[in-house]
């Protein structure tokens, strides 16, 4: 069974950096696209960054120039590098990925992780 698991969250001071990872386990053939979302307490879930199949990354204006998405296809892992963090970046971060998987045949499915918490202190 294919699953996505996020990691790398934690507590960091303002101005610091974190790198979140999202690893797909199971019979994954290829990462086609991915998105990172975040949800702060009492707020809706917002799209932070995306890396679609065409390779053109997109970022929310609030993180542009500070966050970078990347993939390590050999490890079925996606990353969100976050630099110059501010308290406004405090949230639970989620990854969503479109994967080509092998489950009784080749299939293209979308998966989401359970989230990893990021807290930025001032």
Notable traits:
7-stranded mixed beta sheet; mainly beta; elongated; 0% helix; 122 residues; 4-stranded antiparallel beta sheet
Polypeptide structure, described:
- By secondary structure, this protein is mostly beta strands.
- Helices cover 0% and strands 61% of the residues.
- The protein has no helices and eleven strands.
- The protein has strands at 3-7, 10-13, 18-25, 28-39, 45-51, 58-59, 67-72, 77-82, 91-102, 106-112, 116-121.
- Strands 2, 4, 5, 6, 9, 10 and 11 form a seven-stranded mixed beta sheet that branches. A four-stranded antiparallel beta sheet has the order 1-3-8-7, with no helix packed on it.
- Strand 7 and strand 8 form a beta hairpin.
- It is elongated.
- It starts with a strand and ends with a strand.
Individual helix count: 0
Q: Please mark out the parts with pLDDT under 50 across 5 or more consecutive residues, or reply none.
A: none
Q: What is the global morphology?
A: elongated
Helix content: under 10%
- H/E element order: EEEEEEEEEEE
User: What structural category arises from helix and sheet content?
Assistant: mainly beta
End-to-end Cα distance? 41 Å
Rg, Å, rounded:
14 Å
> On the 0-100 scale, what is the average pLDDT?
94
In terms of DSSP E residues, the strand content is: over 45%
Largest sheet: 7 strands, mixed
What is the number of strand segments? 11
Topology, pairings included?
Blueprint: E1 3-7, E2 10-13, E3 18-25, E4 28-39, E5 45-51, E6 58-59, E7 67-72, E8 77-82, E9 91-102, E10 106-112, E11 116-121
Parallel strand pairs: 2-11
Antiparallel strand pairs: 1-3, 3-8, 4-5, 4-9, 5-6, 7-8, 9-10, 9-11
């Amino acid at each position: 069974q294919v699953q996505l698991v996020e990691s790398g969250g934690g507590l960091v001071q303002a101005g610091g950096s974190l790198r979140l990872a999202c690893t797909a386990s199971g019979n994954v053939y290829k990462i086609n696209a991915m998105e990172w979302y975040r949800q702060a307490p009492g707020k809706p879930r917002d799209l932070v960054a995306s890396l679609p199949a065409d390779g053109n990354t997109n970022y929310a204006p609030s993180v542009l120039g500070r966050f970078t998405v990347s993939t390590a296809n050999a490890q079925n892992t996606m990353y969100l590098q976050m630099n110059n963090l501010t308290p406004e970046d405090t949230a639970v971060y989620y990854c969503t990925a479109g994967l080509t998987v092998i489950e009784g045949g080749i299939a293209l499915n979308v998966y989401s992780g359970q989230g990893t918490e990021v807290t930025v202190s001032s």
